[in-house]
């Protein structure tokens, strides 16, 4: 299953946008246009599946900090309404955040679900929510049959309805808390579980720490690691899994040799821990350990671990992966991104036009420019129907 399109309404610089997501998606733009808000919206969709949505919104500063904060006195449906201020939505006046994702199942018996969730402040009569926490107002999981949407799961307040094995609509629960998501709570529903598991399996990489105490600089526990953790704490184990379990580091070795003029990644046999080092042709007497490597080198190795690991997640999101990298490394990074897109959906958000152009040259995928005006964040070439005019 892949994600085919996403809709975002009322999130920071995003008033309302719907756009397709391809096998490889590259968004490029300057500071302040809202690239990270698009990226963060996908993280919140995953938080809905994990059951941590309210906590993630609280970490972002709460609902008042995440609501659409611009525009021309527009109500949530896009019409003019003087009760909405130009500095954002006001509490209790119809303001809210809506996220929707459409998926495609490319297997037999195509299952193409859409998941949507609406979040807002608690209603005055709400008894199972604190005054300022995010409350799920509605939630749904649906498919299309005969050109009409069919709800597999639908939630209003504390009540959740779902389809049983015979397709009959039944009450699944009437005791869900305002801060909980039905997607994360329902068990025994295969369609719900399929969407939930797909979202939970996504990986987001938005900057690896490279300071002296970074997890990247410490040995990893000796546990087989088919994919890189979000913070890179198992990087040594990822490399050791490729070298000593899979026995194939050809793509990894080529990427490193091209990036660092013939350098070699050294992965010692695993004992209690798994580690790695870099052997340079001009200094062949010993391998340099992770604590000795430059920030840029370590960051590139972490990206290599994320993109070339034994097994890739179904969806990889990279936020400004070019950070701390020398421009000469961008073609090699682009090559790794394109290689990863053969095994997973890859979403790239970048400041770097050079990286976007290198990915385009390698893959033929057209980068999309992120722009911003009085109507909020938008994508160049996207029409009001959520389609790119050049597709």
Outline the low-pLDDT stretches. 72-76, 78-94
Helix content class: 25-40%
Give the distance, in angstroms, between the N- and C-terminal Cα atoms: 22 Å
Number of helices: 10
H/E element order:
EEEHHHEEEEEEHHEEHHEEEEHEHEHEE
What does the main sheet amount to? 8 strands, antiparallel
What is the count of β-strands? 19
Q: What class do helices, strands and sheet pairing give?
A: alpha+beta
Mean pLDDT: 89
Main sheet: which strands, in order across?
Answer: 2-1-4-5-6-7-8-9
Range of strand content = 25-35%
Radius of gyration: 23 Å
Shape: globular
Q: How many separate domains?
A: 2
Short description:
With 391 residues, the chain is α+β, with helices and mostly antiparallel strands.
Describe the structure.
The protein is α+β, with helices and mostly antiparallel strands and 391 residues long. The protein has helices at residues 35-50, 53-59, 63-66, 182-185, 190-200, 235-246, 250-259, 295-307, 330-340, 353-363, and strands at residues 2-11, 14-20, 24-28, 97-104, 114-120, 135-145, 148-156, 159-163, 169-173, 203-205, 220-221, 264-266, 273-274, 277-280, 283-288, 315-319, 345-350, 368-373, 376-379. Helix 1 (35-50) packs antiparallel against helix 2 and helix 9 crosses helix 10.
